[in-house]
Amino acid sequence: MTIERQGRPDAVIFDMDGTLFETDKLLIPVHERVFRTLREEGLYVEEAPPAERLLSCLGMLLDDIWREIMPGSSEAARRRADELLLQYELEGLLAGEGALYPYVEETLQQLKEDGVKLFVASNGLEGYVKGVAEQKGIASLFDGVYSAGEYNTASKVDLVARLLQDHHLDFPASIWMVGDRSSDVEAGRGNGLKTIGCAYARYGRASELEDADVQINDFRELLELRL
User: Fold this and answer.
1) What backbone torsions phi and psi does residue 122 show, to the nearest 5 degrees?
2) What is the pTM of this model?
3) What's the pLDDT tens digit per position in 29-84?
4) What are its GO cellular component terms (predicted)?
């Protein structure tokens, strides 16, 4: 294991939505299609929740999201919503919809050139998380892309623990967890990592990042941090 390099990390684990990927540019039109199809299929006939409500739930496990925004929905409706969400998100990505936050690609490139191992840990579906990385041209920069959908983990704390174990990342390595929601901060702190809150994201409450070791307002700040 490499020795900590004066505050620079040996590895950085990133959330996807609201951290690397500006999700609303893809998810708002997808949201409309999902609920239109559910209504057409008779699986959820209540009024569709506002897209902003779905965006505010990003970072949660999908089943918890559907229970939150589709109260009283059946398991069949939630499973179908999973299928439709993935289908429409992938179609949107293939069509070029959605965008990385400013300076994400070049900052990841620089970290990679500096010898930092890069990972993704997301509570999203496997096909979506890997699809964003592939379609936006950053998949090759990561040493691993982990999702709750692939590993069926109960929390992001568990998902990050699995990642750390698989890649033999432990003390004395310096490892950072970077994300925009309280679940990211909890995942980092729960695994003994330094936590960085992305205050530029708009999907959660500012208070969710209060326990992060540091907050950033521009992705490029990662290159200057010493923790």
Assistant:
1) -130, 150
2) 0.91
3) 999 999 999 999 999 999 999 998 988 888 888 889 999 999 989 999 999 999 99
4) cytosol
Q: 129 with 166, same domain?
A: yes
Instruction: Name the nearest CA neighbour of 112 among 217, 189, 14.
Output: 14
Last residue of a domain, one of 71, 94, 117: 94
Structural contact between residues 72 and 21, judged by C-beta atoms closer than 8 angstroms: no
Residues 119 and 192 in one domain: yes
Percent of the chain residues past pLDDT 90, beyond the cut? 82
